[in-house]
Design brief:
Alpha-Beta Plaits, 2 domains, Ribosomal Protein S5, domain 2, six-stranded mixed sheet, 389 residues, alpha+beta, four-stranded antiparallel sheet
Length: 389
C-alpha cells in the first residue's frame, strides 16, 4: 500500500464523510547544494526540491472549522478563525497552519474550513525545511479547495515566508519556500534572492549521488542563534553603507572588500566575509554543475563548510564530526552542512558504486565520536508542491 493510499484510509476513519471531494497533496523537502545563510543577504542560492516531504489528505467541510491531524506530532486541533490572531505556544505545530491561513485571507483570497490529515517523512529538526514544506502544503490546499488554483505560486511562496517571519517569529530568508514552490524534477534552481529571478539547471550527477547525512542532533530555529546571525549581518550592512552604495551584503564588490576592516567587531567582519565569498562560490558551483565537473563542485562544498564553521560559526561538534568523516570517507568528493546549522544535516556527493561503503564507514566513526546514530538518506531531485492525481 502506498503512502497516499494508507493516508486516505486513515483519513476516512478519522473524519465524518461529506459530499465534498477528497484531495491528495505533496510538498517536498529541500536541500541547498550551496549558498548558505545568504538568502537573507540578497545572494544567489542553488537548492533543489527532494523526494521526501509532507503529504496531506484534505477536504472542505461544512462547519468552517480547521480540523487538522498529524501522524507525526500530537495533538490534533479543531480551530476557528478566532484562533488565527497570533502565535500561541500551546498550539505548537498548528501555528504554521494558522499563519498561512491568516495571511492568505489578509491578501484578499478565499479561505474556509477543511479536514486535513498530514504525514511527513522529513526528519524533524534536521534542517531540511519541514516547516516550509508544511507552509507550502497548506497554501496549496487552500489554493485548490477555495481559490480554483488561481493564487500564483510566487504569492504562496511569499505568504509562506510571511507566516514564518511574522507569525512564527523566525527572521528567515525566502529560499526554502521558494524552492519548495517552484522545484523541478532533476533540476537545481539558481535563485537570485534579491530579485527573485530564477534559472533551472539540470542536476543529473552521472555516476554520483547526493547523500543526506542526518546528525540526529535536533535543532530548533526559534531557540538557535539564527536571528542573531541575521542581526549581525544587518549591522555589518549598516556600517558598510556609510562607505559604499549597496542595498545588501552580496552587492559588495571585490574592489571594496577591504571595507570590512572598518567593521570593528571581529565577529561581524567574519559574518560579512562568509556572505560575500559564499555568494561567489554559488556562481562557481553553477558553472561546475553545467560542465559536469563534479570534482570542482565537491571542492566548493568543502570550502563552504569550512567557511560556515570558521567564519559564520553555525556548525557545532555534531555537524563537524559528520562532515569530517564524510570528507575523508571512501567515494566522497565533497560534503558540507546544509540548512541553518546548529545541528541537523550534511550533504555529500558520493560515487554511486561506493555508497554502501561510505555509509558504513561514516556511520561507525560518527557513532564512536558522538554516541549518536546517524541517519543516511538517498533522495531524488523532485518537483515542487502539488496536488497528486
Amino acid at each position: 500500500m502506498s503512502i497516499t493510499q494508507n493516508l486516505l484510509q486513515q483519513f476516512n476513519e478519522l473524519f465524518p464523510s461529506n459530499e465534498q471531494k477528497i484531495h491528495k497533496f505533496f510538498s517536498p523537502s529541500r536541500i541547498n547544494i550551496i549558498g548558505e545563510h545568504i538568502d537573507y543577504n540578497g545572494g544567489k542560492v542553488l537548492p533543489c526540491a527532494i523526494s521526501i516531504g509532507t503529504y496531506g489528505i484534505a477536504r472542505k467541510n461544512d462547519d468552517e472549522k480547521f480540523n487538522i491531524t498529524s501522524l507525526n506530532i500530537k495533538p490534533s486541533y479543531s480551530l476557528t478563525k478566532d484562533d488565527f490572531i497570533s502565535y500561541k505556544t500551546e498550539n505548537t505545530w498548528a501555528n504554521y497552519v494558522m499563519g498561512v491561513v491568516k495571511y492568505i485571507e489578509q491578501k484578499g483570497y478565499k479561505i474556509g474550513g477543511f479536514d486535513l490529515l498530514i504525514y511527513g517523512n522529513i526528519p524533524n529538526g534536521s534542517g531540511l525545511s519541514s516547516s516550509a514544506s508544511l507552509e507550502l502544503l497548506i497554501g496549496q490546499i487552500i489554493n485548490t479547495l477555495y481559490n480554483d488554483n488561481n493564487i500564483p505560486i510566487l504569492e504562496l511562496i511569499k505568504i509562506g515566508q510571511l507566516a514564518e517571519n511574522e507569525f512564527i517569529g523566525i527572521n528567515s530568508g525566502i529560499m526554502d519556500q521558494f524552492i519548495i514552490g517552484i522545484g523541478k524534477k532533476d533540476n537545481a534552481v539558481l535563485i537570485n534572492t534579491d530579485t527573485l529571478e530564477y534559472e533551472y539547471n539540470p542536476f543529473i550527477l552521472k555516476g554520483y549521488k547526493i547523500v543526506i547525512l542526518n546528525t540526529n542532533k535536533r535543532r530548533e530555529l526559534k531557540d538557535s542563534k539564527y536571528n542573531e546571525r541575521r542581526a549581525e549581518c544587518d549591522e555589518g550592512l549598516s556600517i558598510l553603507k556609510q562607505f559604499v552604495d549597496i542595498n545588501n551584503l552580496c552587492e559588495l564588490q571585490e574592489k571594496d572588500f577591504y571595507l570590512i576592516n572598518r567593521l570593528i567587531e571581529l565577529s561581524i567582519r567574519k559574518r560579512v566575509q562568509h556572505v560575500v565569498e559564499e555568494n561567489k562560490r554559488v556562481i562557481k558551483a553553477q558553472q561546475a554543475l553545467s560542465s559536469n565537473d563534479i570534482k570542482t563542485l565537491g571542492k566548493l562544498l568543502i570550502e563552504s563548510d569550512n567557511s560556515l564553521r570558521e567564519l559564520y560559526e553555525v556548525t557545532g561538534p555534531y555537524l563537524d564530526a559528520m562532515t569530517k568523516y564524510a570528507n575523508s570517507a571512501t567515494g566522497c568528493v565533497g560534503a558540507r552542512m546544509t540548512g541553518a546549522g546548529f545541528g541537523g544535516c550534511c550533504i555529500a556527493i558520493v560515487e554511486e558504486n561506493k555508497i554502501d561503503e561510505f555509509i558504513k564507514e561514516v556511520s561507525a566513526k560518527y557513532k564512536e565520536e558522538t554516541g549518536l546514530d546517524g541517519e543516511f538518506i538517498i533522495a531524488d531531485v523532485d518537483d515542487g508542491v502539488r496536488e497528486i492525481f
